[in-house]
Amino acid sequence: MKRLFFLTALCLALGSGLKRVTLTRHRSLRKTLRDRGQLSQFWKAHKLDMVQYSEDCSAFTAANEPLINYLDMEYFGQISIGTPPQNFTVVFDTGSSNLWVPSIYCTSKACTEHARFQPSRSSTYQPVGIPFSIQYGTGSLTGVIGSDQVTVEGLTVTNQQFAESVSEPGKTFLDAEFDGILGLAYPALAVDGVTPVFDNMMAQNLVELPMFSVYMSSNPDSSLGGELLFGGFDPSRFTGTLNWVPVTQQGYWQIQLDNVQVGGTVAFCKDSCQAIVDTGTSLLTGPTKDIKELQKYIGATPVDGEYAVECSNLNVMPDVTFTINGLPYTAHLPSLHPHGVQRRHGLLHQRLPGHGRRPSCWPPLDFG
To answer: Residues of the signal sequence (predicted)?
Structure first.
């Protein structure tokens, strides 16, 4: 059994034989598009009305990967593929299971502006030839499966199958500050039945313990986003005792959420509900009806296709507390101001609604 440490955000790891991957924090693609005044153009180009988006999710299936998932990824790390190594910046994503990077055979601008894998330059590369495709609602990321050695901070996984993308949807990935995705979820989510990187690390006895842990810095002004550690955890990254939370279903890192409190009163998930720990997004998500009600609690209103609150009202906003395995984890909204939020014209922007990689339609809520 493999384990993911979950604490206030997620935890990290330390000890002999453990491997640390430094995570750097960059601006998310959504923030970049917003700063350029291009976010509303993005919604129109992809035929998405984000205020109405959560009203009808029937068009999306479990095999459908909505494009907006990648808009909010902010924490990236380095890996290499092949011999000699070819380097890539990837998102370590607990919400998916495949590894993919752009192929040299991909000629779209989204690919040519990023590092691309060249199989002919790797002496350890083996073609597999299985077609690979992830649907993104308005387009597909397509490619082919290959096999090579993948190195993550000194840990070299041999015969790792991964996807080489030859087509990426629209212009979405053009401004992204990552080249690809390294999925850390369970094999049940893997496209084409590919064994995930971490599962191969365990099978090849590369890690001391069958666990990994993640520390994410809360300092938005630092480019050092945190650390990912394979094989254990780092007790210096947290205080108190770890809250061990059972995985309820091995696909996503899925856990039971006891309840959600607003201002000290249980408002949602009153009889417990299921939740997913996802490092691939900066968002909190929940059922559409509940998130809309939560927006009313905090006074959020539609602005330019998103939701926003007046920064002057932060001090009177209620705390939002998530109870997990009997322990409370509180988002104290006033403490986010002025460093932890994105403001424009005196507004704090909330990313509602949207659709996540979930069995049902859950719009995101972003406090950061």
So the answer is: 1-17
